[in-house]
Write a structure and sequence with these properties.
Mean pLDDT: 81
Radius of gyration: 16 Å
Number of domains: 1
Low-confidence stretches: none
Number of strands: 3
Number of helices: 3
Largest sheet: 3 strands, antiparallel
Length: 73
């Protein structure tokens, strides 16, 4: 397969536009954001900055944001 049309269709199918622009963390406003997938198949953003990752008790309490995908691809 070759061509710009095929490439655009493939990138649209893989949701490249959505996944290419991670948000800033809603808690620390940092950019240490990664994309993750839940066991149910839903995608979400997660902050990996140390100050968002742990609480004073040492438990993980990272900031997350669900990704809402539009369209039925």
């Amino acid at each position: 397969m070759r061509g710009a049309h095929f490439a655009r269709k493939l990138l649209a199918h893989e949701r490249a536009e959505t996944f290419a622009r991670p948000p800033k963390c809603g808690r620390c406003h940092g950019t240490e954001i990664e994309i993750r997938r839940r066991r149910n198949g839903n995608w979400f953003w997660r902050c990996y900055a140390v100050k968002c990752k742990t609480t004073s008790s040492g438990r993980s309490n990272a900031w997350t944001l669900d990704i809402r995908l539009r369209g039925g691809l």
